[in-house]
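We close this part of the discussion by returning to an individual protein. In the encoding step, the backbone of a single protein was reduced to a row of integers, each denoting a local shape. The sequence in question and its structure tokens are set out directly beneath this paragraph.
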Amino acid sequence: MKLISYVTNINENYIETKKNKICLLEVTPINFLLRSIREQRIILEAYKSFIKQCEFDIQFFIQTTKVNIDEHIEKIKTCLKFEPEICEMAEDYMQFLERFSNDRRSVARRFFIVIENNDESKIQKISQGLKACGNNVKVCTKEECKEILKECYKNFDSYTNHDVEDTQDEILKIYPFYFEDTNPNFLKINNRYIGTLIVNDYAKEMQEAFLNKILMQDINLTCSMFYERLPTSEVLKKITYSIGNAGSEIKTTNENQSDAEILGSTYSDAKYIRKKIQLEQEKLYNLYMYFSVCSDTKEGLEKDLQKLEAVLNGVGLVTRRGIFRQKETFEATMPLLKQVEELKKFNKRNVLSDGLCATYPFISNELYDENGVLVGASDMDKSLVMIDRFDTKKYKNSNMCVIGTSGSGKSYFTKLMILRNRYLNVAQYIIDPEREYLKVCKNLKGSLINFEDGKIINVLDIREFSDDGDGRLFAK
């Protein structure tokens, strides 16, 4: 169990490891691609300011998981277990969900920041900096930290698998009951296969928000990025020394044309970095990036790794597999702020804060709520759009406006939403002056209140009372 012994305890709002205490922050993403070019520039400039303000090391941890529509279908069946007539009506919807999801990829993304110590000043800097980008930040609770680590360790099995009788040591609940690292090409944790990739080089110019193309792939993927800030004074000394050496070599070199071009490029790059640091107050960072892929079979893992490698190469990232370094690379993809020196030596790349803007990670095109109803498919990536308007943790309110020309399907869409919410046992009230929903109400076993018969509902009327013994009355 050397893999998991690094975590020693999970407290409220922070995780204890053998080396330090770390704090896990969850970040709400934005749909970056829906913004105008001007808005995108503003967001990236705000992100650049955020990076400069943070004088401490940061890890960005991103989870993407393929949506399992079977779980949603099972939930509908559970909700309608004692209503066979309604369940029969929902059968067409469940079959449609299966067909619709087979033709479309859909993933759910979660974004986290990991920092050392539960420092209020650091948390405030991160929260204020990302708020300017449109992202909200919250500190993960003890239970949330447990669930995140449990999912990272691929531990979806019962606690009884660990043969633990004393529940006092709750940290054991996140541990996998099986771990194997004997194969240099993958890890096996519980019944799942894990493969890792290390990014060891980048294109000289990267496209803005390039991570979005990677994270939209329909594979179970974890991405980990580390920003390690370098001291400006030491950086300037080294750059000035490099400029002097390169300049003298250019003057005295008698080598071929290609060597002269390489020296000239190194010389101009060093001068450019020094100018950026001295005149534009840029900061220099070491950037590290890792990926891990999870699959139920070895064949599926190889297929997903090849797919991810192709996408990474397409956006300008040069990668290598973590062969004979699977365990260390996997640990680097955990939200534990941990990297071993062997990986850092050949993986680090120097990037200015201006260039780090391209790695802005908090982007999500998906609209998928676990308890939502199917609305359609996204035009951007053809992923499923399932919305739970009544999720008060995610949305400020449940209001919705349906707009369209006559005959465009407004009423049809509204009736679909009523049906699909009913399948999840959501209580709904319809004001229907045109008597358009009488048939829907009847088929769904609803109650009809006819105001034409003189019936009146007074929302301020108190019908039943409860005396709490203190002389105060409450409406039931």
About this structure: The two ends are 54 Å apart (CA to CA). Confidence is low (pLDDT under 50) at residues 157-168, 470-476.
